[in-house]
Specification:
This is L-serine dehydratase. By secondary structure, the chain is of the alpha/beta class. It contains 15 helices and 14 strands.
Length: 408
């Protein structure tokens, strides 16, 4: 069984007016930073449900007959497919149950429930959630809606490609995140039909490099990733052959690169992206030579990121950029010494956020103390200037903790 361009066009007609026609925006600063000729962002994070998944979900739901709509549906998902199913089932008055793995971010669970779906948290992987969903489907007579391995789902996701082909007519490359492969397969079918088909590149998490064609040297020892939207252990039996046929290559990116891509999108483009949605940017930033002097579209597939995770990522981004640092300063335990050390930091433009004055629980002489301060700075060179001033004044000082950055 395969999916045709006519099926994608039929899906576009069926979805018209019920899903957002998402914009494409230019990112000239990113083009300058990476050496690409031009960069555009296809913003599927602006869908009503926060991701492209609403397209395929609705296309599949619209195919239900009257009896199936009365019985209801069940799906398994790490969050975005769940919200797409829940959103459209609520709108059409169809009962919906969604099985989600326990690692699903709380925000995705809450939003799925807010649409009216019954949420069941089971399993540590999508595969375990899927197994339980099939059990419930059999027991309760529910209609199972697969998140990616279904011709109607693939055709629905392919409507992203139809839109993109009209919005950007001269793209050289399109970078698409791949989990189970529904978006990648659908877009490949749509873009292959374009007058000048662009080169397609897939991106996956290094924790789940199921379609990556070269060995992943830095694959983590445990299958955990910030990009839970593409944390899929096995690609679809329908999607894999389409991807193998139409994609030039598929690469993996690690969570460090994904984190930095999320921060860049937030700070420079004012765009909220989840891990899977930021993965195309992570690939462009780590494989910039592949896209040098080319016109590149990044598919920002979703923006459903947990607020707590986003806050942590942004703070870690400040640390990586040198705008937030923790300094350890050795001082004598005498009146006025603490004030002199902190005054030096202030004189050099540092803003102290936290102070830890340690006498008892560190391996320091009895008449000494260690002072840990968290400071705001403009960049790493500013931090080094503060450290230099402290050392010159007789205070041994060093920076604590460094975080990995992208390769030059």
């Amino acid at each position: 069984m395969t999916v045709t361009i006519d099926q994608v066009r039929s899906a576009a007609a069926a979805l018209d007016g019920s899903v957002a026609l998402t914009p494409v925006v230019a990112a000239p600063k990113l083009a300058q930073m990476t050496g690409a000729a031009q960069v555009w962002l296809k913003l599927e994070n602006l869908q009503h449900s926060g991701s492209f998944k609403a397209r395929g979900a609705l296309n599949r739901i619209l195919a239900l007959n009257t009896a199936e709509r009365q019985v209801g549906v069940i799906a398994m998902s790490a969050g975005n497919h769940a919200q797409g199913v829940a959103l459209h089932c609520a709108r059409l008055g169809i009962p919906a149950t969604v099985v989600m793995p326990r690692f699903t971010p709380l925000t995705k669970v809450q939003r799925t429930q807010a649409y009216g779906a019954t949420v069941v948290l089971v399993g540590e992987t999508l595969a375990e959630a899927q197994q339980h969903a099939h059990i419930l489907a059999t027991e309760q007579g529910l209609i199972f809606i697969h998140p990616y391995d279904d011709p109607l789902i693939i055709a629905g996701q392919g409507t992203v490609g139809l839109e993109l082909a009209r919005q950007v007519t001269d793209a050289d490359d399109v970078i698409i995140p791949i989990g189970g492969g529904g978006l990648a397969a659908g877009m490949a079918i749509a873009l292959h039909d374009a007058p000048t088909p662009p080169r397609l590149t897939g991106v996956q998490s290094a924790s789940f490099p199921t379609l990556v064609r070269q060995p992943v040297a830095d694959a983590p020892p445990s299958p955990q990733t910030l990009a839970e939207g593409i944390a899929v252990k096995y690609p679809g039996s329908l999607t894999k052959p389409i991807i193998d046929q139409h994609f030039d290559d598929v690469f993996a990116v690690n969570d460090t690169a994904i984190e930095q891509a999320i921060v860049w999108l937030m700070e420079e483009q004012k765009i909220v992206a989840e891990g899977a949605g930021a993965a195309p940017l992570a690939l462009l930033m780590t494989q910039s030579a592949r896209f040098a002097a080319r016109k590149v579209v990044l598919v920002i597939s979703g923006g459903n990121i947990d607020n707590r995770v986003m806050a942590s990522i942004l703070m870690r981004g400040l640390v990586r950029a040198g705008r937030l640092a923790r300094l350890r300063i050795e001082i004598s335990d005498a009146p006025g010494t603490l004030a002199r050390a902190t005054s030096l930091i202030a004189e050099h433009g540092g803003n102290i956020l936290e102070v830890y004055h340690q006498r008892l629980f560190q391996d320091v002489p009895v008449k000494s103390a260690e002072l840990d301060v968290v400071v705001e700075a403009t960049d790493s060179s500013h931090v080094e200037a503060m450290l230099g001033a402290l050392r010159q004044a007789g205070f041994p000082a060093r920076r604590l903790g460094s975080m990995a950055s992208l390769p030059e």
